[in-house]
Amino acid sequence: MPGPNSSKAPLFNGEMSELLEFFEVFEDLASTYGLTSADKCKSLVRYVDRQTKHFWITLMGFKSCEYGTFKRSILGQYPGASKGQHYTIRELERIIVNQADSDINTEKELMHYYSQFRAIAVWLVSNNKISGQDR
Asked: How far, in Å, CA of 43 to CA of 65, rounded?
């Protein structure tokens, strides 16, 4: 497994909406490296900050080295984390208003705006928060 400071290392920054993605990246790496359940439990806490590590190692599944139980215990401590990334209409409006205040002068600026807009708009439509026409 890559070291905690490696650019290839999974990193949990404390944001609930990022927790599922963190697990996805970690589990892909763990599979590549052939980690056992016990190895996964020990390795997982290497990719979080010290405070989070001290919290997570108290959860069910860590001491018994049962990764599935440990992961469920962690997800249970972060309400809404199991839903993954979520957005609001207000966030989409904020991106639009912020962009309206400045010109798009380069293709890079356009792609930056478009990638932000599309990620939120597609999520809102997919989760029936807005209709396809509103988009």
From this structure: 11
d(CA 11, CA 22): 6
Which two tokens mark 33? Answer: 């490296």
What pLDDT digit, counting tens, does each position of 25-47 carry? 999 999 999 999 999 999 999 99
- pLDDT tens-digit map of 62-121: 999 999 999 999 988 887 666 656 778 888 888 888 888 888 888 888 888 888 888 878
**Inter-residue contact 20 to 82 (CB < 8 Å):** yes
| H and E: helices and strands count for the chain | 6, 0
At a CB cut-off of 8 Å and minimum separation 6, what does 120 contact? 87, 91, 92, 95
Long-range contacts of 30-35 (CB under 8 A, 24+ apart): 30/1, 33/1, 35/1
Measure Cα distances from 59 to 91, 105, 133 in Å. Answer: 34, 50, 45
Which tokens belong to 97? 């208003």
The reported pLDDT for the residue numbered 83 is 62
State how far the Cα of 53 lies from the Cα of 73, in Å rounded to an integer.
13
